[in-house]
Amino acid sequence: MSVAGWIGRIILLLLGLLLLWNLWIFAHVLAWRWINPSNTAFMSEGLARLEASNPDAELRYRWVDYGQISTHLKRALVASEDAKFLDHDGFDWEGIQTAWEKNLRKGRIVAGGSTISQQLAKNLFLSSGRKPWRKAEEAVITVMLEALLDKRRIFEIYLNVIEWGNGVYGAEAAARHYYRTGAGRLTPSQSAKLAAMVTNPRYYDAHRGDRRLARKAAIIVRRMPYADIP
After folding, report:
1. Given 64, 118, 185, 219, which residue has the most CB atoms within 10 angstroms?
2. Residue 6 and residue 141: Cα distance in Å, rounded?
């Protein structure tokens, strides 16, 4: 067989593997219309990191239904992470353009423009690394999430699986870790501070008095009354 023939076979094999991978993801997203996810790629990555220094380490994680999570926290996260969550189809194109222009001015990545749906896609299936293909795969998964799940379900899963500290995942674990209370009893100020931590949760877990965290939380509190939630 010629070199071109071997190259063609390899390309077909890679395309086939990519198709199987995306079908596997599609099946999971479809199942999550009725079944709650018990683990994510970010959780697996976080547990491996903890086990490197403590083989007996465990994650702090407990699923709670949407109605058991404080409305204050829901509003805080929408105000902080994705003000147009209810209106877009998974991508905030204006936000992406704004982030792109800001990064060009700074000469480095300082803003992402990712929506809640995009963040969830990454948390569920991808690693925290910045591999070139990751954004493309994140976009494909985001389309699946938006096509198969309604906004309330997307937000419910997001609230329950995102990282909120070193080994801390989901609203219930975060509420108990930081405030010794349940996710349904969080106050507006507590909710705003938790929302402010999402961009760098492990750092803020170790630096809870950081002034940037306090400033961001104060801004979120002012925006919360205008946040629309599912």
Report:
1. 118
2. 31
Q: Of 201, 190, 199, 203, nearest to 165 (Cα)? A: 201
Q: What whole-number distance in Å separates Cα of residue 65 and Cα of residue 172? A: 10
Neighbours of 145 (CB within 10 A): 23
Phi, then psi, of 61 in degrees rounded to 5: -160, 130
Rounded to 5 degrees, φ, ψ at 163 are: -75, 135
Beta strands in the chain (DSSP E): 60-61, 163-165, 168-169
pTM for this model (two decimals): 0.90
The region that residue 167 occupies, defined by phi over 0 for left and psi between -120 and 50 for alpha, beta otherwise, is left
CA distances 98 to 87, 113, 114, 122, 222, Å, are 18, 8, 11, 21, 22
pLDDT tens-place string over residues 96-119: 666 555 555 555 444 456 899 999
